[in-house]
Design brief:
The chain is mainly alpha-helical. It has one domain. The protein has six helices and no strands. Helix 2 packs across helix 3, helix 3 crosses helix 4 and helix 5 packs across helix 6. The longest helix has 29 residues. The radius of gyration is 16 Å and the shape is elongated. The termini are far apart.
Length: 144
């Protein structure tokens, strides 16, 4: 069963900065040259049952989602200076196929992705950041 730390109450989750840095260093080192974190890796981190794993899970998912959003939005904003937030969201939605997620909390994003990982084990060998996008597009699809 997936258990997640509430993002709003997670300021280092009581684990201390030193332990978090050590975990992050070990995690990065364990990835070697293989590169991308897979859905299997993320699912393992998210289901380890500990505060450190739960925090790392939440931080990865939120970071991946925010990174995807900003990665696609920033070039559009630079090319269309003075554009509205609504125009940026519409452009992002047309690229990702994710609509109506503007008011979704970070905790909801973590829950959506966690449920997706749990319910689609046949896809967990794919890169985790792509699975984050798949989960969000499935949960918040655009009307056809």
């Amino acid at each position: 069963m997936l258990r997640f730390v509430k993002v709003e109450n997670m300021f280092w989750g009581g684990i201390g900065l030193r332990k978090f840095v050590i975990l992050a260093a070990l995690f990065v080192a364990s990835q070697g040259s293989a590169g991308a974190i897979t859905g299997n890796d993320l699912h393992e981190i998210c289901t380890d049952g500990g505060a450190v794993g739960n925090s790392a899970c939440s931080f990865y998912i939120i970071g991946a989602w925010e990174g995807l959003n900003y990665g696609v939005s920033i070039p559009f904003m630079m090319a269309n200076q003075g554009t509205s937030t609504a125009a940026v969201n519409q452009y992002r939605s047309s690229i990702f196929g994710v609509c109506g997620d503007e008011m979704v909390s970070n905790s909801q994003v973590v829950d959506v992705v966690g449920n997706y990982l749990r319910n689609t084990p046949e896809k967990r060998h794919f890169p985790a950041r792509g699975l984050v996008l798949n989960a969000m597009s499935q949960a918040f699809p655009c009307a056809q």
